[in-house]
Write a structure and sequence with these properties.
Length: about 475
């Protein structure tokens, strides 16, 4: 089986063939670091990290670049608002973003370049575009001449009259032309250039960093669908005008992030940072929501979506506890030679991922496999030897999948306890208070006041807390 990718450029499903058969050059647009990273950043970072992981699983060596945009209007505005320098703002949020992504188990990219480290390269790139007649200087700005690039619009498939970037300027010959270099304004960070002091335009930054680290032609360029135009369209125009080569062989675009069926936006007050999500939910809950969708789909991070994902993650980890306990208790039974055959879990995983990295399909197959594992464990008609064979194979295949997805691969006991505690926190109920309530119920039972004892049990059940009575103690678990 070969990997198939939906290529936005051709608008078709294509067999993946990197330029070098063994090496993959992958670039994904990173974060503009002027504020805390949000779940939109999380979604893109998780998807492309999993794509990188699966390509590695399939034997490719992947050089993955995810940049930081550390000079931008938003960063400059934040600096003016806070009285700090733009570099202080960007440095702080780069560190915060890295920490947040690490907490949701996103690995560092092979390279994570910053725009400000490549200003000289950007200036050189722009000079060559001017020499080739694709760009012009006007009032200290340098603009790309859209009329000179005949393929403009081929990625977004827009008509000429729609190809207007919303960046008006009196310097433009054509309203669709876009800035490669911006003349400095008072108080803004700037660099010396042949056109006077200024700073790079947004679109040129990714073209230059990608070329410097990956060469003239990428294998895969990724980013959110909201970047398709103008950002990615402009990257193609300026890069291919300079090199005369295709900028990227495949283009992958992930869907939008929604909250309660509206696009996530600070102005709408439906904005989740990664930190805010982690205060309430475990990292695997966030990853589960993301990976249970196809990367091209919009994701709705509603409160219900978080809670439903938590239920599933809790179920999976509780099931893993049962699987581990069974295999430990059956340690004296000889382990069979494990060989997955036919449409085993690992094969279904590969089929799903080969089909345009369909993590949603993989998650569905995982759910089916967990259900079957639980059924086998509780089936009294199945012999212990047969159970060991089936459950051992399930666990072997599952561990392969969880490693690639970086999901459900933490200590089950640890995650179950953490989910329980975060659930209590959302109820504004401390564990010590819960224990006092349980102790009070036990006292009622000792005095045979079963009405009061049952009332406490019922009240806790209404909050999703189930009490488990044992001869010498009472434990609790979640009804999620």
């Amino acid at each position: 089986m070969s990997i198939k990718i939906y290529n936005t450029l051709s608008r078709s499903l294509e067999e993946f063939r990197p330029e070098d058969s063994n090496n993959v050059k992958l670039y994904a647009c990173g974060v503009t670091v002027y504020d805390e990273a949000h779940i939109g950043h999380a979604s893109q970072a998780v998807f492309f990290d999993v794509i990188r992981s699966y390509l590695e699983y399939r034997g490719f060596k992947v050089f993955y670049v995810r940049n930081f945009t550390d000079i931008d209007d938003k960063i400059i505005n934040k600096a003016f608002e806070t009285g700090k320098s733009a570099s202080e703002i960007s440095s702080h949020y780069i560190e915060e973003t890295r920490n947040d992504l690490q907490k949701i188990k996103v690995r560092s990219a092979t390279a994570e370049p910053k725009v400000t480290d490549h200003v000289k390269d950007i200036i050189k790139f722009i000079e060559e575009l001017i020499e080739k007649g694709f760009a012009y200087e006007s009032r200290g700005d340098v603009l790309f001449s859209v009329d000179k690039f005949k393929g403009y619009g081929k990625l977004s498939n827009r008509k000429t009259e729609e190809l207007l970037e919303q960046e008006p300027s009196e310097s433009k010959k054509n309203p669709a032309d876009f800035a490669l270099w911006k003349a400095a304004k008072p108080g803004e960070p700037s660099w010396e250039s042949p056109w006077g002091k200024g700073r790079p335009g947004w679109h040129i930054e990714c073209s230059v960093m990608a070329r410097e680290l990956l060469g003239d032609t990428l294998d895969i360029h990724g980013g959110g669908v909201d970047l398709l135009f103008p950002h990615h369209e402009n990257e193609i125009a300026q890069s291919e005008s300079l090199t005369g080569k295709p900028f990227s062989r495949y283009w992958i675009h992930n869907g939008l992030v929604m909250v309660n069926n509206q696009k996530m936006s600070k102005s709408l007050g439906n904005f989740y940072t990664i930190k805010e999500a982690l205060e309430k939910f475990e990292p695997d809950v966030i990853r589960y929501i993301i990976l249970s969708h196809h990367y091209s789909s919009n994701i709705d991070f509603s409160e219900d979506a978080f809670k439903n994902a938590e239920k599933r993650v809790f179920y999976f980890y509780k099931s893993l506890l049962s699987v581990n306990r069974f295999l430990e208790s059956a340690s004296d039974i000889k382990r069979p030679e494990l060989q997955s055959k036919g449409n085993g879990l690992k094969e279904l995983f590969e089929q799903g991922m080969d089909d345009n990295f369909n993590t949603a399909k993989v998650i569905a197959e995982l759910s089916n496999a967990f259900s079957e594992a639980n059924r086998i464990l509780s089936d009294k008609k199945t012999s212990e030897e047969e159970k060991v064979k089936i459950i051992s194979l399930f666990k072997k295949d599952f561990e392969v999948i969880s490693k690639v997805l970086n999901l459900l691969n933490d200590d089950p006991r640890d995650v179950v306890e953490k989910i329980k505690l975060k659930y209590l926190n959302r109820l504004n109920l401390k564990q010590e208070e819960l224990q006092k309530t349980i102790d009070a119920r036990n006292e009622f039972k000792k005095t045979k006041d079963y009405t009061s004892a049952d009332g406490i049990r019922a009240e806790l059940m209404s909050k999703g807390i189930k009490l488990l009575d044992y001869p010498n103690r009472t434990d609790w678990e979640l009804l999620i």
